[in-house]
């Protein structure tokens, strides 16, 4: 059995007091009802099994053979409709860049916890646990830095972490290019220009999120990241070899096996609303791990807060709303009910 006290002192000092906070929640009477096994929505089965996500070779998009290009685009769109998730290889982001980014990410998270919390590292972008949790089932065993892309180019933002900034500038640019390529394929499939999102999804609106999931002595009781959907257009995830990502497929949880050569792409709520439910924003979560810590980096393709999200075709499934309105509603729902309601709030 893994003994958390066996970790080096420096690692213990860098970890947030997740177990203490979880314990405090456990001693409180639940303020908000949470679903038990018998209270799950009809058709949802609590099962876990491995799945093989659709694996797409993006080099085919630049093939001189039109049939190959079209087949690749079709595979992207089909996976976005049937799974809401897919993996991409030959995506243009070099293994060396990913390794360099991971190295700097690990160095950042090994900063002492007190310093991460109190010294304003990366403009106070540090988060840990779930501040809004009112019961144990709403608590995530994780920590993160949520970084606006607009800040990546500001040297003062990074302070002593200048080597992180140097790598992140290159990494953010590569992820941005890939996200726009994929968004263009999805738009063109529905009869729109490839650049339809360019004016609203500018770099200043997008984010990188650096995640760490520490080893968890109570991994059977808690999630690394609680079930949720993403509130953006598109998310691209670079994860390590530890695994733990699960998604809802055919009313059951299925685990995604890590592929060291692949990035994971998932559809966000805005793409589902814009496409009139053709593309699916799928619920997913991260499992806690007793033996190994896990690292991942997510890129979120987001519009400006005043951007209007409307259906790309009629009749529309959802009423028009701005991204700012959507984000505010999500935050209000989480604060009031303990979980995200999301798109159902905006159904016509």
Automatic annotation (TrEMBL):
InterPro entries cross-referenced by the UniProt entry: DIOX_N, IPNS-like_FE2OG_OXY, IPNS-like_sf, Iron_ascorbate_oxido_reductase, Oxoglu/Fe-dep_dioxygenase_dom
Enzyme's top EC category: oxidoreductase
Single GO biological process annotation from the record: gibberellin metabolic process
Signal peptide interval: none
Enzyme Commission code: 1.14.11.13
UniProt superkingdom: Eukaryota
Keyword Oxidoreductase attached: yes
Record field: catalytic activity: gibberellin A1 + 2-oxoglutarate + O2 = gibberellin A8 + succinate + CO2
Calcium is among the record's keywords: no
Domain Fe2OG dioxygenase span(s) in chain numbering: 203-303
SUPFAM superfamilies per the UniProt record, alphabetical: Clavaminate synthase-like
A Pfam family reported for this protein in Swiss-Prot or TrEMBL: DIOX_N
Record's keyword terms, sorted: Dioxygenase, Iron, Metal-binding, Oxidoreductase
A molecular function (GO) term: metal ion binding
Family the entry assigns: Belongs to the iron/ascorbate-dependent oxidoreductase family. GA2OX subfamily.
Name under which the protein is recorded: gibberellin 2beta-dioxygenase
Source species: Populus euphratica (Euphrates poplar)
Name of encoding gene: LOC105126295
